[in-house]
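Supplementary Methods, section 5.1.

A reviewer requested that the exact input to the structure prediction be made available. We therefore reproduce it here, unchanged from the version used in the analyses.
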Amino acid sequence: MSDIKCSEKRKFTSFEFGIREKTILSLSIFVVFFIVIIIAGSVINPEKFSIDLINKNQSPSLTHIFGTDWIGRDMFFRTLKGLSMSMKIGVLSSVISGIIAVVLGVIGPTCGKRVDSVITWFIDLVLSVPHTLIIILISMAAGGGLKGIVMGVSLTHWTSLTRIIRAEVMQVKEADYTKIAKNFGKSNLYIAKNHILPHIIPQLLVGIVLIFPHAILHEASVTFLGFGLQSHEPAIGIILSEAMKYLTSGKWWLAFFPGLSLVLVSMMVDNMGKKIGKLIDPKTAYN
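The structure derived from this sequence is encoded token-by-token as follows.
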């Protein structure tokens, strides 16, 4: 009798703290951390990382956790400000890319073979050119700055998600309930709105989250090369670009902490996307 009770207790505990519950908890922690960084970087006082020539080139210490740069600016607050800026660009670019992906992914299979062939050809065309090169060209054509880098990143990161959504749409299009709606005279717009879009929302959410790490890394790399944000705008790419001049003199902290912060945020968001996929997929939620 006691063995049965212990077994039921173990089952109950396993149910209460299963993979799904742990995934939701970790996602909540990631989201809170993400929001805190964005808000903290947005409301931070510029005086926190103002010029202070007396404390220039200070190595990391309790007073300056990330050290100071060549004109005495606190690298911790400067990194926080730059990381917040890069994350905002990543979020905006990911959402725009997701909108482009869902529009093209739905229009292709539902509007006939010719339209689908043109969209497929355009996807292959964009994928055939390196992302960094296209981002630089679009950014320069748009006048550079924040608008240019957002347009460049947004218009180059929709391709893979479009292919995924297109494949899902083609499966839904062949489903019985879609064919029945077509036989009843329902328009392509009605079918897309009521049958296709609800089905692809999970893939769209996961795709947008997984685009984010690529977006902020490309933004940082293009800005690092000098084709992104202007030098007066705080961003990780600008911080790393400026730090390169001082690395040979032993000022390693100027690039180490901003670069590490960018990589950690990218890895966290990528992990978040995978956890969301696991949460949505019932086959892996309880493994």
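DSSP finds eleven helices and no strands in the chain. These observations are discussed further in the main text.
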